[in-house]
Amino acid sequence: MADTALRNAIAASDTATLIELLEDKTLPIEGVQSIYNAFKADKQLVGQVAMNLSLRTSVYEREREYSPIMVELLIDIASNPVDMGARWAVAKNPHTPVEVLRHLATDSINLVRALVAANPSTPSDVLEKFFSDEKIVRDGLSGNPNTPPKLLKILCDDNDKMVRMRLAENRSAPKEIITTLLGDNDPDVVKAAHANLGERE
Question: Is residue 55 included in any domain, yes or no?
Answer without folding.
Answer: yes
